[in-house]
Input
Amino acid sequence: MSVVADEVVISIVGLAATIVGMLGGALYWLGKKFEEIDTRFEEIDKKFEEINKRFETIDKRFDEFDRKLVAFADSARSATVAMNSAVIEFLGLKGLITPSEASFLIREVARMSQAIRTNPISKEEAEFIKAVFAKGDIDKITVEELEKVAEILKRWWYEEGSELAYKMFIYVWMLRAYKLYGGGQREGR
Output
């Protein structure tokens, strides 16, 4: 029995050694495969880092473009205001704005002021504009009030690009020119 038991033990040890060898080989092979996978993931991570750097560069370019666009828009707004203000003041200086046109402008600004929203201008500013034009008569409105209203409307237009704000600004500036340059009286009359 001892010979048979020895043979069984040897068979079991041989089988176990074979299994351990196969497992060892398989684990070694799997380890190499996982190492290759890790290497590939590291390469992918490096590529993603490069892509992120490129996106950061693109983001910086977009930020610069945004700044330039805002600066251009601000310049265009300022140039528009300056040009139209000069033309309007010239019309006032030449006495080309009549009293009936001034009355029309007051009525129009009063009408349009009913559509003012309180953002970006405050409730107090909106009420000030309405109160100035509720007077209804150009002789009751001061140049200072017109200038304050014009500044509020210009700021509203700059911040929001509102057509209503710019139209009201132009009308108010015409009234200012009328008040400053003779109330519709032409030179030489």
